[in-house]
Amino acid sequence: MGSWAEFVLRHRRWVVAFWLCVLVAGGIAAGRTSDRLTVDFSLPGQPGTEATNQIVAAVHNGGNTTPMLVTVTMRPGQTITGHEDEVAKAFDAVQRGVPDVRVLDEANTGDRAFRTDDDRTAYAMVFYPFPQTFDAKLPTEPIRTAVEGAAPAGATVGVTGMDELAVGDDTGGPGVLAETLIGASGALLVLIYVFASMLALLPLAVAAVSILATFLMLYPLTYLTDVSFIVQFLVALVGLGVAIDYSLLFVTRWREERDHGRKNHEAVVAAMETAGHAVLFSGITVAIGLLALVVLPVPFMRSIGYGGALIPVASVAVTLSLTPAILGGIGPRVDWPKIRHESSASPGWTRWARLVVRHRVAALVTASAILGLLILAFLGIKIGAASSDSLAQAGPAVTALHRLEQGGVSTGALTPIEVLADRNQARDVADRLGQVDGIDAALVSTGASSSADGQTVVVLIPDAETVNSKSVDVVRRVKDVADQTPGVIGVAGLGTAQVDFLHAVYGNFPLMLTIIALLTFVLLVRAFRSLLLPFKAVVLNLVSLTAVYGAMVLFWQEGYGSDALFGIPETGAVTFWVPLMVFAFLFGLSMDYEVFILSRIREEYDEGRSTDEAVIEGIGRTGRLVTSAALILFLAFAALASGPGTDLKVMATALGFGILLDATVVRSLLVPSLVSLFGRWNWSLPDRVARLLRVQPSHPHTERREPALARDD
């Protein structure tokens, strides 16, 4: 690291020029990269995906989309009875006027399930092609326009559905750029407090270059594989927080070395050898957590693993080259006005660390109790999708849905099960599957749009929406019966996708967890030259993540907070892909703080301090830094939560809460109390293990403790 610092300082003008070129190229590539991102949640090789592909190939819609429900409500005093032909023409106008859709209604199925109990509202199910891009608009307006043009005079037309409810009356929320600016504004305020000088602008500059460098690296990746649209939000906002955190750590250490009397050149080299070393290991840890997603048999999650791993790579590269290059040139001049000094540890954090060390058992019990309560809540988690009640609270889609619900129509119509069957046996298939417990209606349309190439799509309406791991049992029952029913080609739908996801993805989760834990453990053994500290770090991370899942259950699934903060009632479940995303990002990001803190504690111990003294000095030096870094990341996730879509809000709030929980309860209570309790055991790395990992062995030195810090035992 010292040699690298010398190289950067010798060629600092070329380094700055290089990153300026990357900044320009990244700015050009960012827009083009966003245009190439995909919206694809398929699971290749899974039965539901195969059935979906067959349905789409045959009728060009449905399969992997939930339908829109189009309602026609007669004016007061009139009923559907007596106006069946007019209503049928209104729904047929959708079939004729909107391309590539499939319409099911009472006219082409002969089923009175398509009207409400009061006989005033009729509805049709409209299946449409899956949108290919994130910016693609739903066909809501063309469908509404077609029906209104042919509806009976005075009738009210409504359009609802899971996708339509997800949009609600929201205009779409801020875009990626706006969210990034929101996060950057909050970060700037924190940086001004931390540095109290013009240096506050340097981490933001590093973050800007890092984000655009990530987009530049991501652009060619979009030609090699499909990359999910979610990546652009993560690159902008997670990249903002990570790059600022790394630069904040480096610059703070540089100021500390300067305040200790080192010349600017020496201070940069010293910062690289200490903080730079921690940044490098932190970046690798974050990348490991994300790259572990590639073991999952899900293309969109693999792409998030590839794309997400570029975030710490770019952040580390820019922080360890551009930051020392700037500091080595104009650092002292930019550090103006120099109000805050780093010559001594933070008095407040030093007092806090001394208090925790002195009462380490009480601190351990308190932190364990907080985490334990959240872990208990995790036991009630339901994996699935957000319920219709939580997707929107106002707007025409909600009004249309309430009209159907009040008329006795089951919300299971929002999540039908589609069964591709042999055309000659479609009626028998419908009769057989319609008898499955939990199925409200089995529909076979005579419309031309429901059949092709000797195949027909049979639509089953469950008696409740199939949106989570508890409510998809009816889907499993249908699949079991379908496997034994002649003429069935495949079963698709939202519930089927969830069943496949739970089987394929969560079935591979232990493998993903094992890979991350082992690689992280080996990496941290090299970083800390200890066996116990890395083991503790991995275990605490897993405990912390489980507690975050518990918070997600309370806040979103049960609604203790989502309604008050976002106006969204309980979702009833946690979206099936969110826990994996939270795990992949939080495992690495929270480990950042572990590396920051323990690297400094290890440094202080190696200088001859006792374990307790090293803990106090290490926390005193890093407490304010870690808290500020966590706050910056939290603000970035808060900006992400301002975006459209309940799923992104769930993920963003989980990441934000996880960062705060980790920086406070885990790193400020558990870590110092446990390191103090373990004492000499923290610092042991046997010679044979050290030789295997090509690092110096570590043996505890004789400790001299102050009376005030003497162990209670």
Q: What can be said about the biggest beta sheet? A: 5 strands, antiparallel
Just give the CATH class of the largest domain.
Mainly Alpha
State Rg: 29 Å
User: What is the CATH third-level topology name of the largest domain?
Assistant: Multidrug efflux transporter AcrB transmembrane fold
Total of helices: 27
The residue fraction in helices comes out at: 55-70%
Second rung of CATH, namely the architecture of the largest domain = Up-down Bundle
Helix/strand class = alpha+beta
> What's the total count of β strands?
11
The domain tally reads 2
Topology, please?
Layout: H1 2-10, H2 12-35, H3 47-59, E1 68-73, H4 84-97, E2 102-104, H5 106-109, E3 121-127, H6 140-150, E4 156-160, H7 162-167, H8 176-195, H9 201-224, H10 230-259, H11 264-291, H12 299-319, H13 322-334, H14 347-358, H15 360-378, E5 383-384, H16 388-391, H17 396-406, E6 417-422, H18 426-433, E7 439-444, E8 451-452, E9 455-462, H19 473-483, E10 488-492, H20 494-504, H21 509-528, H22 532-557, H23 562-566, E11 574-575, H24 578-606, H25 611-641, H26 646-678, H27 687-693
Parallel strand pairs: 5-11
Antiparallel strand pairs: 1-3, 1-4, 2-3, 6-9, 6-10, 7-9, 8-9
